[in-house]
């Protein structure tokens, strides 16, 4: 780790209990009766395919690493055991033009991601965590661990490796708009998105987002009482200081959205994905978070503490999923 930077990246909350390893995304690989193999191909002089059981027989090493999820939670000192990805790369003899490595998963949605070759060489092909085999929900039987990057770069259920001359936007980068760099210390969470100003103005005037998929749009300070944002995808959108009294965000994707300082009294977040969202200093009296996913969300921070009351609906099980400091604050605030 670079001694000049803090161990905990900006905007992250710490989970100290190693038994609390949140499951984010899919929880199982694609169903298949085919034997599990890992192939290395592309710009390789000696493309290779190995059965998974065969790779388990290679010399293994255990690395103690910090993990940082894009949804704003981190864990220190998690132990992973496996084979260096560099060993697989070298066995396939990369050609001189190979500069990137695409990793592909055995998943129902064909998840993939891409890394610069130099970074890929530092990765681990892991079979175990904390001295126990990886569970399917955490990427078992085999996943990649990419040090120093948000954890979506640590691909679950590794099946294919492709040596490439050019970079490639993977599943999370090309669809949801996650940043391809994924540097936690630079807070490279999402790419910056926008919409034409006239469309933004119409949505504000109608108080409806029309179930649209928006990325990084700024609604800060707007008067949006009664807003209908149900079912919308609003990743990384900003509602700082907005008037959101009675707004409906039910079943919306609000990953990493910023509600700091907003007036969200009586707002509905029922069944929403608010992972990594910031509610610092927001007025959440009467707000309903029933069934919402709160991993990494914050309710106290640089903008102050959220205002809650007896009508704010957040269940104990949801509070337990938060980082240590956030969970402690909600327990005090809600009694």
Write up this protein.
- It is a single chain.
- The protein has 335 residues and is α+β, with helices and mostly antiparallel strands.
- The protein has 2 domains: 13-175, Oxidoreductase, molybdopterin-binding domain (Sulfite Oxidase, Chain A, domain 2), CATH 3.90.420; 192-335, 3 Solenoid (Pectate Lyase C-like).
- Helices cover 14% and strands 21% of the residues.
- The strands form 4 sheets. Strands 1, 4, 5, 8, 9 and 10 form a 6-stranded mixed beta sheet that branches. Strands 3-2-11-6-7 form a 5-stranded mixed beta sheet. It has a two-stranded parallel sheet with strand order 12-13.
- The longest helix has 11 residues, at 324-334.
- 44% of the residues are buried.
- The model has no long low-confidence stretch (mean pLDDT 94).
Task: Give the SSE map.
Blueprint: E1 13-14, E2 37-42, E3 48-51, H1 52-56, E4 61-68, E5 73-84, H2 85-91, E6 100-105, E7 112-116, H3 117-120, E8 124-129, E9 132-133, E10 143-145, E11 158-164, H4 171-174, H5 197-206, E12 213-215, E13 233-235, E14 300-301, E15 304-305, H6 316-320, H7 324-334
Parallel strand pairs: 1-5, 2-11, 12-13
Antiparallel strand pairs: 2-3, 4-5, 5-8, 6-7, 6-11, 8-9, 8-10, 14-15
């Amino acid at each position: 780790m670079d001694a000049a930077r803090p161990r905990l990246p900006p905007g992250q909350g710490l989970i100290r209990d190693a038994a609390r390893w949140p499951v984010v995304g899919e929880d199982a690989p694609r169903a298949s009766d085919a034997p599990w193999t890992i192939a290395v191909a592309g710009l390789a002089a000696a493309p290779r395919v190995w059965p998974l059981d065969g790779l388990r027989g290679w010399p293994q090493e255990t690395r103690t690493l910090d993990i940082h999820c894009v949804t704003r939670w981190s864990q220190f000192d998690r132990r992973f055991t496996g084979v260096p990805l560099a060993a697989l790369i070298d066995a396939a003899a990369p050609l001189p033009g190979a500069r990137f490595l695409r990793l592909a998963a055995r998943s129902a949605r064909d998840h993939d991601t891409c890394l610069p070759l130099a970074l890929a060489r530092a990765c681990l092909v892991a079979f175990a965590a904390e001295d126990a085999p990886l569970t399917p929900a955490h990427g078992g039987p085999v996943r990649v661990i990419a040090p120093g990057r948000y954890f979506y770069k640590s691909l679950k259920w590794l099946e294919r490796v492709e040596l490439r001359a050019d970079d490639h936007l993977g599943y999370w980068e090309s669809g949801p708009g996650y940043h391809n760099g994924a540097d936690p210390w630079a807070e490279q969470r999402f790419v910056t998105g926008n919409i034409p100003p006239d469309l933004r103005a119409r949505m504000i005037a109608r108080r409806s987002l029309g179930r649209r998929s928006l990325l990084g749009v700024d609604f800060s300070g707007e008067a949006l009482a009664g807003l209908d944002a149900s079912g919308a995808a609003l990743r990384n959108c900003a509602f700082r200081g907005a008037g959101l009294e009675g707004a409906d965000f039910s079943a919306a994707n609000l990953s990493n959205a910023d509600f700091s300082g907003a007036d969200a009294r009586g707002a509905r977040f029922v069944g929403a994905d608010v992972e990594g969202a910031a509610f610092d200093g927001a007025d959440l009296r009467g707000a309903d978070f029933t069934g919402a996913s709160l991993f990494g969300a914050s309710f106290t921070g640089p903008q102050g503490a959220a205002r809650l009351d007896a009508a704010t609906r957040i269940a104990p099980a949801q509070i337990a999923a938060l980082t240590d400091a956030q969970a402690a604050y909600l327990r005090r605030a809600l009694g």
